[in-house]
Amino acid sequence: MMMKYFCCDERRRNAVKSAPGAINGIEFLEVVDRPGDSPEVRQRTLKVHFIKPLAPGALQVNNVLIEGGERIRDIQVAKVTGGAAAASPPFDGPNVLAVEVEEPGDFSNYTLRLVIDAARARAADEDDADSEFRKPPAGFDPILSAVEFSFKILCPSDFDCRHEQVCPPEQRVQPDINYLAKDYASFRQLMLDRMIALMPEWRERNPADFGIALVELLAYVGDYLSYQQDAVATEAYLSTARRRTSVRRHARLVDYFVSDGSNARAWVHVRVRDGVSNLSLRSSRLTGDGEHPGASPKVFTKFLTRVAETSKAVLLNSNTYQKALAARPQIFEPLHDVELFAEHNEMRFYTWGARECCLPRGATGATLRGSFPNLRAGDVLILAEVRGPATGLPGDADSSQRHAVRLQKVTPSTDPIGGQFDVPPNNDSVSVTEIEWHAEDALPFPLCVSSRSEAEYFDDVSVALGNIVLADHGVTIEGEALPEVLGANHALTKVTNKSGDRCDARPAVLTPHRYRPQLKQSPLTHAATYDATDSIESATAAMRPEAKKLLPAIRLAEKEVNVSWTPKRDLLGSNSGAREFVVETERNGPASLRFGDDRFGSRPAEGARLTATYRVGGGTDGNVAADSLAHVASNDPALVANIVSIRNPLPARGGADAESVERIRQDAPSAFQGQERAVTIDDYAEVAQKRSGLDVQRAAATLRWTGSWHTVFVSVDRLGGEPVDVRFERNLRRRIERFRTAGHDLEVDAPRPVSLEIEMSVCVKRGYLASDVKRALLEIFGNRTLPDGRRGVFHPDNFSFGQPVLLSRLLAAAQATVGVDSVDITKFQRQGVASNEALTSGKLVLGRLEIARLDNDPNFPERGVFKLTMVGGR
To answer: Taking the domain 12-149, which CATH number applies?
Structure first.
């Protein structure tokens, strides 16, 4: 009798063990194969373990039959020993039967079977499986009277010796499928043709028939799935993808970050009523850095562009505010808190009694009339022309003469004789305030402070506007509830592999529902972080935030567990527990939120309820012109009552639209070719010069062995000859760090200035004053910018590393000066190094890290000397 089933739970052994009487059966079989035995002995003894003890003489040699084999067949049993009569070693007890064979078998499987007569069973027809002689002896179970084994079971193997219970699936006849069927009509006809083949008698074609309705329903589903299949194939390639999300993901694979745009920023001047002091204007602070995790910030203030017939200040959610919104104005919100003071509305410059004054281009300081104890470093002022210099009328003021500066130092002072310049004069002292602002905010133009016409003197042509707050484009949407997070989607349960061992049960892998909630309003704002307490950042830098800091302005709160979720560009660097998500936006569509998979980023728990606080608005629509913002809306009645007006003296800047899909297709494939590391010294120089974002005119690098490692020394030539100070060095090192090769140390050095010594003999034309020509030559060969905007010959930006000084250029500049008849250069050398080599060759050669310098400053003669000898003229 043979076993005809593959079973995973075999209970028969336990049944035989507990059965009354002398019924017995085989439990398992061992092949004796000791590595230390001789080859003649190994694999010659089989230990057959029985469930119960064997009766003495119950089994003989003729009761054991060994079947099977490929190369070695008809294995003969030589000896049988064991049972109750041989309970001592080496037979391990009364349950063990030792079977010795004449020769070991091959690597195939064999079967040891207990039979009535092995000799007659072997002689019988092999197909006669029910032969009387093949039946088990009396007292042995018909199922447990045979066992499969291998003589080579103890041979070294890389595989598990366990036998897999494999049930091959039934081979089904596959119908002939027309793969050209791709739409509703072809699917419908295909199924009807199949139905005719299966059911020739069914001829119904009425659309109301249940069978036809079912066919058409399946054709519709097939058409939808066919479209989805085509869409997947289309979105699989950057060149054919139509969805922005697909293009974005393709671009990220080649390390290209797609720009989703940015919102605009504007400096807003808030004018408050006289006598107002310490009036608080609060911000929502919903920027890209998550300052208030887990809480929905309350929006206190909004700035609106000009709307007809609307008050300057209105309450939020009032009827007036709702009417203003109907006109669809652009809305800005403050980025930081600010305290407002009436004395900061408009501050006058103090010129210490002088008239017809101006702040020159490049100025980084001024004096204000009056005492301003609440004016502090870090505050922003806007220096603005408020009257026409020629007429003194406000309507003639030049709107381009406005500039924002961030104060770095505020020093109260006094002019003891200041009253002498008042009208009428007096002997009182005058309180003044010295202010200094960031060097990066240096005036880009001369600013007229006072002027005179033919008949009248005009004071306060320009003033300093305080109560400045930085606002950015976008309106906050608070507490929008997102759909509940669903659990496992049983329709997407992954099917286990049926070709493996059917007894190796594997639990079904449940697939969670894809959680892709969409925001109700759009477009989602993308903004950069802003820290108003960072006094290091200039006002100029605040208006050009770094692109890598742009993030969606959105926060998710999970109130049940009091946690928040923050946005990221991608989840490739997120760990499994990071509560982070990615925002993906289609063209002119709502923003979708994509969460992690508990490997890269956390997946929201089943049943979680998230609320979103986010901002909408952005792009180039926010780049409003100067004086476009005219209304303030707040939920603080005190703020509304005390604000007189608001305006943006400068135009809003920084608003950019999202990168187009076509632009991404063009740029992404080649963007990865840009080297993002510095290996050679030229790489370090290029990074410092072109990719640091700092005011670097040129850089040069040198690699040296410093005793324990290699050090790259980056020498930097800053624009305008600015010094390489500690702050600049820190910023440059931080920006080069991500390019630095492992094993290279980094140092930032200043350039090596080479002071020059030049003597020139000039023949002045008849009729020109020699002193005027000399003054003009000293200006032309100076290191400053000339009044007409040209640079002096020795301006720091005219020379850089290793650039030679050409004698012909000096002669040409001097000869082109009005009043010069002829020029002769008598000395042209490094300062303190007597040599005619440069004068003879026509150029002064400098080293790779050297820069020519000639300041001609009597206070610093070591910085170069320029001497003129004037001949002729008047």
So the answer is: 2.60.40.1220
φ/ψ of 227, rounded to 5, equals -65, -40
Q: How far apart are CA 334 and CA 301, in angstroms?
A: 7
Q: What DSSP string runs through 427-492?
A: S--EEEEEEEE-GGG--SS-EE--EE-SS-EE--SEEEE--EEEEEE-EEEEEEEPPPPP-EEEEE
pTM above 0.85, yes or no: no
CA-based torsion, 22, 27, 32, 34: positive or negative? negative
Structure tokens at 413: 């002072």
Identify the segments of the chain with pLDDT beneath 70.
1-9, 83-92, 125-130, 157-169, 284-299, 495-505, 535-536
What span, in angstroms and rounded, lies between the C-alpha atoms of 442 and 438?
Answer: 7
Which amino acid appears at position 748 of this protein? V
State the DSSP code for 380: E
State the pLDDT at residue 289. Answer: 42
Closest CA to 668 of 257, 237, 259: 257
Beta carbons of 736 and 678 less than 8 angstroms apart: yes
Indicate the pairing of strand 45-50 with strand 26-32.
Answer: antiparallel
Written as one string, the DSSP assignment of 526-590 is EE----TT-TTS-HHHHTS--GGG-EE-EEEEETTTTEEEEEES-STT--TT--EEEEEE-TTS-
CATH number of 675-749: 3.30.300
Q: Report residue 482 as tokens.
A: 């997102």
Domain boundaries, the chain: 12-149, 184-220, 346-466, 675-749, 753-872
Residue with structure tokens 């002769």?
Answer: 824
Distances (CA, A) of 500 to 162, 497, 503, 507, 660: 13, 6, 9, 14, 49
pLDDT value for 130: 56
- Cβ neighbours for 682, distance < 8 A, ≥ 6 positions apart: 701
Q: What count of residues does the chain have?
A: 874
